[in-house]
């Protein structure tokens, strides 16, 4: 394995993106709204496409505005369907994001006929290509750093409100904390983070970065601050381990399994998501083993 400067930029971008996604993901999990992150990551597709079709360019602001409006639309419409249609939250989100995702694919296909907007990159990401830039520091690195700092700043400033709204909405309302505003703000931040993550990890894989690091962190800590810290650690570890697997272990193993020795490196973003899953299941198994050992110890004492 030969490590180059490009590999460093790939890992750095993947780590920044994963950590940026993990911050709102923690609060989505605490609010029992992990499906909302999945819905937003799929539903912003038509927002991106409409932003391009209306503006006629790939400038960031129109597409970003369209994506944010699509994310808010998802949250509002799914809430209306849940109340009026008398269905559970997961079903209402499923109806909305599946419909918008299909619409987004159609619009992306239409937009791709007029510009080099590849639906595959929107879905699966192109981390290896996103870091190729003529500048000393790739543009995607600056974007990922900016969204990470924004998410960390908002989490620090509104930490108390986010914590109270997640664990006791009634107390939050009685205390004058606008839980509805917190919910919509979290939706906007998730949409913004998702749009930035599209270029590197894509729509389908961004949900892994939103949810899995936070879920892993909940196995390591019981405090909100602890969960937030460990989610960042897991996100960073997933990025590094994922790229290492993509360029070394996974191709060799698959080559041995299939009898083909000409397999190149795998998709780094995909392996980062897979690594996050491996970390989660490893922590889950370790937690179960520790509880079983502890239970046997108490039984022997009794």
Summarize the structure.
This protein has 12 helices and no strands. It has 302 residues and is mainly alpha-helical.
The beta-strand count equals 0
Low-confidence parts:
none
Structural class: mainly alpha
> What general outline do the C-alpha atoms trace?
globular
* CATH domain class name of the domain at 5-208: Mainly Alpha
Helix content: over 70%
One letter per element, helices H and strands E, the order comes to HHHHHHHHHHHH
Relevant terms:
globular; ABC transporter involved in vitamin B12 uptake, BtuC; 83% helix; 302 residues
Description:
- This protein has a domain at 5-208: ABC transporter involved in vitamin B12 uptake, BtuC (Orthogonal Bundle).
- 83% of the residues lie in helices and 0% in strands.
- The chain has 302 residues and is an all-alpha fold.
- The longest helix is centred in the middle third of the chain and has 39 residues, at 179-217.
Summarize the SSE layout with pairings.
Elements lengths: L4 H26 L3 H22 L4 H26 L3 H24 L6 H6 L2 H4 L8 H19 L1 H9 L1 H6 L4 H39 L6 H35 L9 H34 L1
Helix pairs in contact: 1-7, 1-10, 1-11, 2-3, 2-4, 2-10, 3-4, 3-10, 7-10, 10-11, 10-12, 11-12
């Amino acid at each position: 394995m030969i490590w180059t400067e490009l590999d460093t930029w790939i890992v750095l971008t993947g780590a920044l993106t994963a950590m940026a996604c993990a911050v709102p993901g923690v609060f989505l999990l605490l609010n029992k709204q992990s499906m909302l992150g999945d819905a937003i990551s799929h539903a912003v597709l038509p927002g991106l496409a409409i932003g391009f079709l209306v503006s006629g360019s790939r400038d960031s602001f129109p597409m970003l505005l369209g994506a944010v409006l699509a994310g808010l639309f998802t949250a509002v419409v799914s809430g209306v369907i849940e109340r009026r249609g008398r269905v559970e939250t997961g079903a209402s989100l499923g109806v909305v994001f599946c419909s918008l995702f299909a619409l987004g694919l159609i619009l992306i296909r239409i937009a791709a006929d007029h510009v080099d907007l590849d639906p595959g990159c929107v879905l699966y990401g192109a981390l290896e290509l996103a870091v190729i830039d003529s500048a000393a520091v790739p543009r995607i690195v600056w974007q990922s750093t900016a969204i990470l700092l924004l998410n960390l700043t908002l989490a620090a400033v509104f930490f108390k409100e986010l914590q109270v709204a997640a664990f006791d909405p009634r107390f939050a309302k009685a205390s004058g904390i606008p839980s509805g505003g917190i919910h919509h703000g979290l939706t906007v931040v998730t949409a913004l983070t998702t749009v930035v993550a599209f270029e590197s990890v894509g729509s389908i894989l961004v949900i892994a970065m939103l949810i899995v690091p936070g879920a892993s962190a909940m196995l390591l800590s019981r405090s909100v601050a602890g969960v937030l810290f460990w989610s960042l650690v897991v996100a960073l570890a997933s990025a590094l381990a994922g790229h290492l697997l993509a360029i070394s272990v996974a191709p060799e193993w698959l080559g041995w399994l299939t009898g083909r020795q000409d397999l190149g490196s795998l998709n780094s973003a995909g392996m980062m998501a897979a690594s996050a899953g491996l970390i989660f299941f490893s922590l889950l198994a370790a937690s179960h083993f520790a509880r079983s050992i502890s239970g046997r110890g108490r039984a022997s004492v009794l």
